[in-house]
Amino acid sequence: MKEDLLHFIWKYKKLQLQELVSSKGEQIRIIEVGTHNYFAGPDFFNSKVEIDGQLWAGNVEVHLNSSDWYAHHHEQDPNYNNVILHVVWEDDATIFRSDNTEIPTLQLKNFISAEVLDAYRRLFDKSKKSFINCENDIGDIDDFTVGNWLERLYFERLERKSEEVTSLLEASTNDWEQVLFSMLLKNFGLNINGEAFLSLAQALNFSVVRKLQTSVPQLESVFFGMSHLLEEETVLDAYYIQLKKEFDYQRHKFELKPESVQKPEFFRLRPPNFPTIRLSQLANLYSAQHGLFHKVMQTSNLKDFYQLFDISASSYWDDHFTFGKTSKKSTKKLTKKFIDLLLINTVLPLKFCYAKFNGKDKNAEIETISTAIKKEENSIANNFRMHGLQVQHSRDSQAVLELYKQYCTTNRCLECAIGSRLLGR
Fold this sequence. Notes:
The protein is 48% helix and 10% strand. It has helices spanning 3-11, 68-71, 114-124, 143-171, 176-188, 190-203, 206-212, 216-226, 238-254, 275-288, 292-298, 302-308, 336-357, 363-372, 379-386, 394-408, 417-424; strands spanning 28-32, 35-36, 44-51, 54-65, 83-90, 105-107, 320-322, 325-326. Helix 4 (143-171) packs across helix 13. The strands form two sheets. Strands 1, 2, 3, 4, 5 and 6 form a six-stranded mixed sheet that branches. The protein has a two-stranded antiparallel ribbon with strand order 7-8. The chain is elongated, with a radius of gyration of 29 Å. It has two domains: 3-112, no CATH class; 172-351 and 359-370, no CATH class. The chain is α/β, with parallel strands linked by helices and 425 residues long.
């Protein structure tokens, strides 16, 4: 038995409501359960309960045992003086407020059906489960409940990602172009080089990019040089030598300091994801799209985003993946799949935050774009599909990531619409 089940039972009135009595035989009628409080203080605010014909308005506190009131020192906290009912599983002690008035106690174990307890035990019985608590039943939940819950989870995920955006915004003194640049760099680096590329953004003020973006070689020289990719003395490649000389000049001109930048990795990467290719693509993007942040904020459909990000690495990289070593010729263009990742992880969170920052609501636009992007292929989304949950587009694949990481792995089943529906059946 856990306290969160008692919260669930009280919140959704999953108990016998007729002939409800306190531990001392007082008749109880629940009028309003109150507002669930997830922070410090009583568990439910502004509840209304009738006790022996007398209407009481105040707060409700929930514990496994009555004695927990003293274990948590509530008798010393004035925030608990307005508690009108103590809801517990086991009433093992008489409870008093700080003014020595007794608090009525409702012992739940006398009023909960066996079906509710059995459903709770089945949900948390891990003996025959390998993925999540509700894996045997999740496919039976109606589409309306699942659809609404996934939509909410998607925006919960955007809210969580807002914390990173806010941090970047504060660090850049409210320069949204710098924030976009930082987020793009991190996501161009993907999982392996994301932090290394972010360290480049933190060491390179976007004002330098603004001044150099009319020249791809100048931008490339700074991106490569700051990332310690122009430090080989044995490479005799003409383009490499040109970029190295250019970086030496720009480093002196702008007083650039690459010491704090982490050198990116090549190991374990497919050649199209090599840092040389990704940094060249980013240089070409900023050279082709001046005022990129404004364009990103103004673009509202997927087709236009694909056109906006329709760029390739410089021609040198058509037959190279690394400096000085030729390869089979192929244009290193941003694929639609990679652009989708940029939209999912950079553009849409930034669009959400910028709208919020300006007191606007872009949720409908964001949802339209997210449901137009193909679903991501990952083990978590695939596992949910195997157990009967429909994952149709990127909004859903992002939502199930949020569901798994923030609810399933932390056993927050009773705060989940799916878990609540299973217990309420």
